[in-house]
Amino acid sequence: MSAVLPAGIEAAAGLALMHARCFDEAWDAKTFQTLLRMPGAFAHVAWTHAEPAEPLGFVVWRRAGDDAEVISIGVLPGQRGRRLGRRLLRTVILAATREGARRLVLEVAEGNAPARTLYAQMRLTEVGRRRGYYRKAHGAAEDALIMARDL
Ligand SMILES: CC(C)(COP(=O)(O)OP(=O)(O)OC[C@H]1O[C@@H](n2cnc3c(N)ncnc32)[C@H](O)[C@@H]1OP(=O)(O)O)[C@@H](O)C(=O)NCCC(=O)NCCS
């Protein structure tokens, strides 16, 4: 069992710890502070119901005009495949709709199969491509797909 709750700037250090476990290129707490100070920026964290609660995953997103953009989403390695990613995205969809956004947008590396499956399941479709946008560990470039859905 888990709960997805909104998080504020005080969560920056915890978000950085989770991000480091989810991505090769870690963002530090200062980066999350800067992100969360941007107008229209929000974070949500999935927590266990244990006492004390342990974080399981996060999403940071931003409303800009008609768009809600997912800036980063991650579920801790040992917690994947339990539909937390789906719950986090659903939370964004509900909150962004409430905030008046009309479209959900995000970017994903072309080779990120788990994320692409999740996004397809949530009815996001490819609307653009940035060629060679990501640099992989061994130096090869990878395209970023821009995906979107109406809200
Ligand atoms: C992408 C990510 C957030 C998905 O989180 P998750 O909690 O494992 O996802 P869910 O359990 O909600 O899975 C939703 C669907 O995605 C698909 N999926 C999840 N993991 C998958 C995998 N390893 N391979 C293929 N498909 C997968 C499944 O179809 C699943 O649906 P199902 O439960 O009906 O089978 C997680 O893998 C992650 O944190 N990855 C590292 C960070 C990252 O890449 N973030 C996205 C950057 S754009």
Describe the structure.
By secondary structure, the protein is of the alpha+beta class. It has a single domain (2-150), classed as 3-Layer(aba) Sandwich (Aminopeptidase), CATH 3.40.630. The chain is 29% helix and 40% strand. A hairpin with a 5-residue loop joins strand 6 and strand 7 (141-150). Helix 1 (12-22) crosses helix 2. The longest helix is centred in the middle third of the chain and has 15 residues, at 84-98. The model has no long low-confidence stretch (mean pLDDT 96). The structure holds coenzyme A (COA). Coenzyme A binds next to strand 4, helix 3 and helix 4.
Give a quick precis of the structure.
This protein is of the alpha+beta class and 151 residues long. It has helices at 12-22, 29-37, 84-98, 113-121, and strands at 2-7, 41-48, 55-64, 67-75, 103-109, 125-135, 141-150. The longest helix is centred in the middle third of the chain and has 15 residues, at 84-98.
